[in-house]
Automatic annotation (TrEMBL):
The gene is Pigg. GO terms for biological process: GPI anchor biosynthetic process. Keywords: Endoplasmic reticulum, GPI-anchor biosynthesis, Membrane, Transferase, Transmembrane, Transmembrane helix. The keyword Endoplasmic reticulum applies. InterPro entries: Alkaline_phosphatase_core_sf, Phosphodiest/P_Trfase, PIG-G_N, PIGG/GPI7. GO terms for cellular component: endoplasmic reticulum membrane. Pathway: Glycolipid biosynthesis; glycosylphosphatidylinositol-anchor biosynthesis. The lineage of its organism: Eukaryota, Metazoa, Chordata, Craniata, Vertebrata. It is a multi-pass membrane protein. Its main location: endoplasmic reticulum. It comes from the Eukaryota. The chain crosses the membrane at residues 12-32, 437-456, 476-498, 510-535. This is PIGG transferase. It is found in: Endoplasmic reticulum membrane. Belongs to the PIGG/PIGN/PIGO family. PIGG subfamily.
Amino acid sequence: GAVGMRLRSGVFASSCLLIQALGVALFLRGFFPVTVRSLPRREARADTPAEPAPPGPGMVSNWTKIPSPLFHKVVIVLIDALRDDFVFGSKGKQFMPYTTQVIEKGTSHSFVAEAKPPTVTMPRIKALMTGSIPGFIDIVVNLNSPALLDDNLIWQAKTAGKRIIFYGDDTWVKLFPKHFVEYDGTTSFFVSDFTEVDDNVTRHLDSVLKREDWDLLILHYLGLDHIGHMTGPNSPLVGPKLREMDNILKKIHISLLSKEEASLPNLLVVCGDHGMSETGSHGGSSEGEVHTPLLFISSAFEKRSGSPTKPERVQQTDLASTLAVGLGLPISRNSVGNLILPVIEGKTMREQLRYVHLNGFQLSRLLQENTPAYEKDPGYEHFKVAEKSHGNWIKLYLEGNNSEILLNLGKKVLKQYLEALKTLSSSLSKQVAQYDMYSMMVGTVIILEVLLLLLLSVPKALSKRAEFEVPLSPPLFSLLFYLMCLMLCAVHVIVCTSAESLCYFCSMSWLTAVGVMMLISALMCGVLSAIAKIFENSRLPLKNSVVSSSSWSEIDVLILAGTIGHVLSLGASSFIEEEHQTWYFLINTLCLILCQELCRNNFLIKECDPHHSASMKQNFDRIAETSEFKNIDILAADSSKLGKATSSSEFIKGSEKWISLATPWIILICCRLLRSLNQTGVQWAHRPDFGHWLTSSDHKPELSFLTAFSLLMIFFLVQRRCSLVSKIAMALGLLGVYSYRAAVGNVIFPWQHGGKDISK
C-alpha cells in the first residue's frame, strides 16, 4: 500500500541541509532580538516639543525652541579599555594624580558608567553616540564597520553647523564618514604597538588646542587596550600609560580653562568604551569589562568639598542625551538613555524641567513606535502625570509667583520626571535584551527533527547506497500528519494571542506559519517511518547494493571547506588571537571523517558487496586454469599451500586493517595531549597546563626523561633508511641537542647531583 519516492543520497542530504538552515535562521532570529528603532532619521525630523501647556483655556508656553547650549567647546577623551579602578582605585591615585585631584577637589562630576555586553569597541562607540543598545548582531558587523545610519550625536552636531575634529581609532572614521572637518585615524590591528598608536593622536594636540576653529574635539586612545591584550591589567606597562594619559588630560584641561569665555564655559569628558577582564581581554560581561569611568570636568560645576564619595552608577547610553543637551542639540531618536542630572544642576529650575521634559518626550515617543500597548506602560503613565504637574508649575511661574513654594513644587515635579525617565529607559532596554522564545523553540524543533532523520539514515549513507526511500502516503501517516498539523496550528494561535512580547514567528503571514507547521509534521512522520523501517529491516537480510562512484569524496570536500574557512577566519583579530582553536576543531573533524571512511572501506563494502569476493574467486580459478594448461598436476599439498598463503596474506591484511582503524583515534588522543600541553591565545592563556608543570624547576627529572626518550625515538624512526655515516652524524646531532639544553639548564644529565651547574 505505501507509495514511496526514491531520492539520491545527494538530493536527500541537500534538502536536509536546506531545512536545517531554515531552522537555524528561525532560532537566530529569536536569539538576536531586533533593536529598538524609531523611523529612519531622514524621514522624521519632528520638531522639538514645546513646554507642557499650563492648564486653562488658550494658555501656551512661549518657550518652543530647543534650549541653547550649556557649553562653548566640548572635548571628549575616550581611553580604550579604561577600567573604573584605573581612575577611582589605587592605580588612579598612584598614576593619575592630576585627574584624582580634579575628581576629589575640582569642579567635576564623576560616575561609573555601565556598558552592556558585548563589550567590543564598535558597539560601544555606537552606544555612546546614539544612546541605543547595540545587540550581539553588531559584533558580527564589528569588523567592517559600515557608516552608522541611525540618528546620532555626531550627525546632529554636524547638521547644527558644529565643527568636529577627531583623532584616534579609525572605527570612528568608518562609522561617521564626512562628518569631521579634520581627522587622523589610527588602526587597532597592530596589538603589539603601545606607543606609536597614542603618539599619533597626541602629536596634533598642541596645535589644535591653540586654534579656535572647532566646537567638538574627540580623541580615542588605543594604547591601554593593546597593553591589556598583550600583558594584562596588572602588568608594569599599565602605570606609565596611565601617567601619560593623566598628563594629556592635564594639558587639555588647563588649555580649556585658559581659553574660557565669561558667558559659556567649556567641558571636558573623560570616558572608557569598555573595561578589561583580569586577563586583559574584553567582550564579555564580567565586572571589570562592563564598568568604565565617566568624568565631566567644567568650570560650570560647583567645586567639590568634603570627603571624596563613591561615584554613582549611570548607564553608558546616558552620555548621548546628556551631551545633546549640553551642546543644545535634539536628543537622538533611538536613545534609551537618561539625562545625567548633576550636569545641569547649575541651571534654573525652569531650564532643568525643560531638559528632563525633552528627554521624557523623546523616550515616550520611542516607546510608542516600538510597543503596541504603550499606554499601559508604567513609565508612560508616570511621564503623563509629571507632564501635567509641569504644566501647573509653569502656570504658577508665568503668574510671577517667585516664592519658596514654587521651588519646592519644582523639585517635586523634577523627581516625578526622573522616576518616569528611569522606568521608560529600563522598559526600552529590556525590549532590546529580550529573547523571542517561541521562534527559538520552533527553530530548535526543526533542527532536532532533521538531526534525527539524518542519524536514522546514516547506515544507508555509510553503505554508499544511492537511494533513500521517502514514504509518501501510508494511510496511518497521513492521519498522523493532519492531526499534528492541527495541533501545532492550535498551539500557534494560543501562543500568538496570549504573548505580551512581540514574537517574530507570530508576525509572519498565516500561510508561512502553516507551511512551517506542515514541514514540522512531515519531518516528524519521516522520522517515525524511518524508525519503523529499521524495525522491519532488522528481520530482512541485506539486499545487495550498487556502489556509487562520486568524483568528490567527503574528505576532499572537508579539506577544501576547512581551508577556505580557516582563511576567512583570519579576517578577524579575535580569530587570529585564538587561531589554535580553529586548528583543534579542523583536525578533530578530519580524524573523525577519516575514521568513517576507513570503517566504510574495511567493513561495509565487503559485506554489502559480493563483487569483491567474486573477483577473488575468479583470480584463483584463473591460476588453476593456467597451471592445468601447463599440464602440471596439482597435488593436494599444493592446494593446501595455496590455502595457507591466502590465509597468511589475509592475516597481514587484517592486522593492517586494525592498525589503520586505530590510527585516527591515536591521533585524536595525541591532539588532546597537545592541547593540554600548552594553553595559548588570549582568553585562557593564564590557565595551568602540562607545559608549565614540566618546566617548573621541581620537575626537571621528568622533563629530562621525556626529552631523552623523544630524541631516542626520533633516532630509531629515522635511522632505518640511513647509511652508517648518516647514522653517526645524526646520533651526534641529537646528543648535541640534549647537551645544549643541559648547558642552558633546561634538563639535567643522570650523573648530575644537586644544583651543580654543568660547564658550558
